[in-house]
Amino acid sequence: MNVLDFGLGALEEELWQVLFLSVRCGAALVAAPVVGGLSVPPTLRALLGVALAVFVASWIPLPELPDMNSFAAILAVVQEALIGASLGMVLQIAFAIPLIAAEQIAGTMGLAIATSIDPSSGAQSGALGTYFGLILTLLFYAIGGHLLWFELLIESYRLLPAGTAGLGEMRARDVALFMGYAFATAAAIALPVIFVLLLVQTVTGVISRSAPALNLFALGLPSGVLAGIAALIVVMPIVVEQFVALIEVALGHTAALAGGSAPA
Q1: Beta pairing class for 115-117 and 124-126
Q2: 131: Cβ–Cβ under 8 A, 6 or more apart, which residues?
Q3: pLDDT value at residue 262
């Protein structure tokens, strides 16, 4: 029996190559806060992942991919998804640091009840956390962090070839260590304002003990809010410098996960 061949074998192989390469890009775009929020439709993220995969297939020499119907292909797809998710998770952790610092400050100031809906995640967050997140996002775009991150994502296909390389124990440990750095950085950002608020609360407590007739809540809450706002205005240049350093460290960890060195 004669079997008709319409010449679709090469097309099927190219489609499998693009689909396989889009797994890492798609996982990174879903995990990253830059384009992974609710403000970007999932269809647009999928199309962007496929577009990046087409460029990668055209620019970077690729090793031989596993057969599409083999068990090795399933393992390779899972491995690619883990690599992409790790590249985006570093940025996700970095963008969560201002929210942690803001929650510490807002709780001490008495602004914990001032909440709003975060448009990027759809979750409820503090007003101060939304403000800090907006500043970090603007700084990220202003210094070209999004361009460097996309460059690292594309370069990861050269340093970690698709289907032949994985994260490894050391790179997975770097992600966990970066989480520890995140908590330390959040505490460093919130420390100056919290220290000022501690002094204000101490003075308020001394005054309330000296004059018991004064209403502690009527005196302490307004003074704490005013002192917190004044402290935020004073330390904002330092906070901006810490945010810039945070972005640089996050991009450095992303470069280390991609198999290269930290960007200059």
Answers
A1: antiparallel
A2: 102
A3: 47
What gap in Å lies between CA 41 and CA 97, rounded to an integer? Answer: 25
Q: Are 31 and 84 in contact, with CB atoms under 8 Å apart?
A: yes
User: What phi and psi values does residue 116 have, to the nearest 5 degrees?
Assistant: -150, 170
Q: What are phi and psi of 126, to 5 degrees?
A: -70, 155
Nearest-angstrom CA–CA distance, 65 and 218: 69
- At 135, the amino acid letter reads I
Record the tokens describing residue 203, joined without a space.
């003075």
Question: What span, in angstroms and rounded, lies between the C-alpha atoms of 49 and 19?
Answer: 9
Q: What is the dihedral of CA 174, 77, 38, 232, to 10 degrees?
A: 10
pTM for this one?
Answer: 0.78
Please say whether the beta carbons of 129 and 99 come within 8 A: yes
**Tokens representing residue 200 in the block:** 């204000």
Which residues are registered as beta bridge partners of 115?
126
User: Which amino acid is present at 230?
Assistant: A
Q: What angle do CA 17, 23, 26 make, to 5 degrees?
A: 130
> Which amino acid makes up residue 201?
Q
Q: Which residues of the chain have pLDDT under 50?
A: 1-6, 262-264
Give me the torsion for CA of 204, 205, 209, 215, rounded to 10°: 60
Instruction: Check the CA dihedral 184-185-190-195 and report its sign.
Output: positive
**Hey, where are the domains in the chain?**
9-257
Q: What is the pLDDT of residues 151-191, one digit of tens each?
A: 888 888 887 777 666 666 666 677 778 888 888 888 888 88
